[in-house]
Each structure stands twice: as structure tokens, then as C-alpha cells.
Amino acid sequence: MTTKKLHPVSGVPYADLKAEARARRAAGERVAAIALALDVKHPAVVKWCQGMPEHDAATRANVAARAERRRIYPKGHSAAERVALTRLGLPVAERARILAARTAQTAEARA
What we know:
The chain folds into two domains: 14-70, no CATH class; 79-110, no CATH class. Helices cover 68% and strands 0% of the residues. It has helices at 14-26, 31-38, 42-49, 53-70, 79-87, 92-110.
């Protein structure tokens, strides 16, 4: 006879928790909110939802948004421009300002 593994606090079978987590994730709920509602750890919800198209799409979007928030230099310039300004000994803020201005001028010239 196989016994279902139960959650130690709620006593609910893990299979039921997994099904609930997947249903909530498919409905667009955040992983942290699901973990809190089901009283399970965040990594458990991530593991249960892996492979779901909705989860994978949300994960890709989150990774892209995180990378954009960390961006120091604007898009649209070459690495050679950035290296040349770095070699001049300019501080990061000044390099970013110069590259942003160049990127804006290039965009205006193309328009």
C-alpha cells in the first residue's frame, strides 16, 4: 500500500498542494503569493511549476526586466565606444551620460 506524503503543518497531501500551485500559477499568480497561501517554501512552488508555459514565460520576462534594471549603459552603442571612454579614465556616470547623448544623436540622425 502506498501512502501519500503529507504536508507536516496542514496535513494536506503534497500532490494536492502541487496541483493547487500549478492551477494558481496558470491563473497568473506570483510564486511568492502561492508559497505563502499554501504554506510551502518558494523553491517547492518553483519546482512544481517548472515546464508550465505560463511559468516559463513569466520567468523569462522577470529575467529580462531584472537585467534592464541593472543596465548602466544605454542600448545602442558599441563595446568599443565604452572601452574607449573607460580608457580615458572617466567615471561610470560620465561614461553613461556621454553614451546616452551619442545614442540619442544617432537615433535623431536615423529618423
